[in-house]
Amino acid sequence: MTAQRRTVRVVRGGPVLVEGPIDIELPDGTRVESDRFMVAICACGRSKNYPLCDTSHRKRRRR
Question: Keywords of this protein's UniProt record, alphabetized (predicted)?
Fold first, then answer.
């Protein structure tokens, strides 16, 4: 079986975008599956749906 190349895009101040579908394995061994064609992975740690992004990074107040 050959490995399929995926595109990963890092958005400054936002999520990491990965071409899906994907399986995500968290440090505690929990697995999260997504069948979407593009998956946003939380990079800020604020998401209530972690590891998937829920756009919580947009709520950050600037000083």
Answer: 2Fe-2S, Iron, Iron-sulfur, Metal-binding
